[in-house]
Specification:
Layout lengths: L5 E5 L6 H9 L6 E3 L3 E2 L14 E2 L2 H10 L2 E8 L2 E6 H9 L3 E6 L1 H10 L4 E7 L3 H11 L4 H15 L7 E4 L3 H17 L11
Parallel strand pairs: 1-7, 1-8, 2-7, 3-4, 8-9
Antiparallel strand pairs: 3-6, 5-6
């Protein structure tokens, strides 16, 4: 089985990338599977291990770093580590799937650098930083301090948008969903580099 493709969706928190990724996963014709990230952050209510994240202690996470088990990892906030396990991507490729990521901007760019020929890196751009703050407050999952940290980080992340293959402006959700679908459908249908003319 040839390795599948990688589709990365990155954006500041509250931009709508998770909604877009869920929409794409609901389309069986795209043959996508979700890459579950590992994290050392505490589990929130209703979150399930192995479905939302692979939850680890800080020491477990650091041991995986030492072992070279991650495709990419980052300390997003102090002692809040996030990463993509190599075993997760290998598992999904073995199932014949293309792997889709809902991932931090820095992590998304690392995956693109590691697999430049088989990664589509998409940046989801919110209407404004003010709109981001409104969306994050509506979630009611985090303290004001944490929201302010995310907003400060968002300004830095927005500056990385030109490093991605393409930008989806999520000003109207229905339009953004359709644009994302068209983009991914075209990408997964295209031959892999070096596979032109081979049967798929």
């Amino acid at each position: 089985m040839a390795e599948g493709k990688l589709i990365v969706f990155s954006a500041p928190s509250g931009s709508g990338k998770t909604t877009i990724v869920r929409h794409l996963l609901s389309k069986p014709e795209l043959n996508l599977a979700f890459s579950v990230s590992a994290t050392s952050r505490p589990r929130r209510p209703r979150e399930k291990h192995g479905e939302h994240y692979y939850f680890m202690t800080i020491s477990e996470f650091k041991q995986h770093i030492k072992n070279g088990d991650f495709l990419e990892w980052e300390e997003v906030y102090r002692d809040n580590f996030y990463g993509t396990l190599k075993s997760e991507v290998e598992r999904l490729w073995a199932e014949g799937k293309h792997v889709i990521f809902d991932i931090d901007v820095a992590g998304g760019l690392r995956i693109k650098r590691k697999f430049p020929d088989r990664t589509l890196a998409v940046f989801v751009k919110p209407p404004s930083v003010d709109e981001l703050k409104i969306r994050l407050k509506k979630r009611s999952t985090e303290s004001e301090d944490k929201i302010n940290m995310r907003i400060a980080k968002a300004s830095v992340e927005l500056a990385t948008a030109p490093q991605f293959d393409t930008i989806i402006r999520n000003y109207d959700l229905d339009t953004a969903l359709q644009e994302a679908y068209n983009l991914v459908a075209e990408y997964v249908a295209a031959p892999q580099p070096g596979e032109e003319g081979q049967p798929s």
